[in-house]
Amino acid sequence: MTLVGPLHDDNRAFQIRAQFTKLGSCLRAFLSQDDGRLACISQASPRNVKSKKTKILTEYVEPPEDYVIPRDAVYAPEQQKAFNACVRFESNCNMEDAAKCFGKVVERYGKESMVGFDAYCRQSKQYSDIGWQAYSAHRKFPTWPGAKPPPGTREEGIANMKLAAELSDDAISLRPNHGRAHLASAFNYGRIAIFSNNQTKVDLCNFVRHESLTATQLDSKDDLAWHALARWNYEISNITPVVRHLVVRHWYGGEISASFEDCIKHYRTAQALAPWRLTHHFELGKVYLKLGEPEKAIELMEKTLKCETQDINDRLSQLHCAQVLAKLKAERQKPAGRFRKKRKVSRGANGAEPVESELQA
Fold first, then answer.
1. What is this structure's pTM?
2. What is the pLDDT of residue 1?
3. Residues with Cβ < 8 Å from 168, sequence gap 6 or more?
4. For the chain, what is the domain count?
């Protein structure tokens, strides 16, 4: 079985891994200090990458017959009981105890086992969620009052996101052909990018896109993988034209292929795979709001509030959604002509409407 797309070119794969190895050390330097970060990241440019004896997905390794992807994983009764106990902490927005619980599962069964590896990825998610709660507080977004730990400072948030990224990096080294490991990496570094300024977003954009694409290729039925790819398109499309067309072209010697059209397409794919997951509806609603289509945004956000929550991210999304929806409905009650007019935003090269789904039969 051969992978298609950006991972198919062996030489390019070597360049990508070498670049990301260097970029990872640069990111750690960036999070700990500001001195010399420009020179460090400049050395990580693909044009300066030297050939290294590194291994990435140049060859796809067929998983064993008993392999099951995490969302369908079936463990031994004792393992399932231990894993479910951790999930209960997570669903109650207790990331602190959930991280400790998943860590104990890893210690008990080992990172090499299926349940241990899945717990390792979920432990990474807990630290990322702790950092994201700090980001929400820093940006004056709603925070969940019962969350444990309570929102920390911006610096504490970055430190937790850094720890999450280190765990997902280790998970990839353990199982490079496991989609959820790359998905965790995409979310972790994507959140670090969102937390940062435009320059850092540019530094990390290719890495996050690569990890998201890898996750969708390894498991095309994982809705969160398509969500990560959609979110990448949304964030990059929001970068100012000057940064996108001048800085990025100078930095990488090419354009970033991101659009609201692709963003909508990927979110619709995620919706089709998991219509019960509220974050797909809310984030897609934000895209339509950005495109000046408030009626579609309202419909999706109303659906968001009807979905059940699974973790702290869902709780925060519903709180934020309720605020945005209230403002939209208040705006709609104003006299005619006061509602924001629909503005034209390019959705793609041909300007065509996005297709309904990317799912293949």
1. 0.72
2. 36
3. 121, 124, 181, 184, 185, 188
4. 1
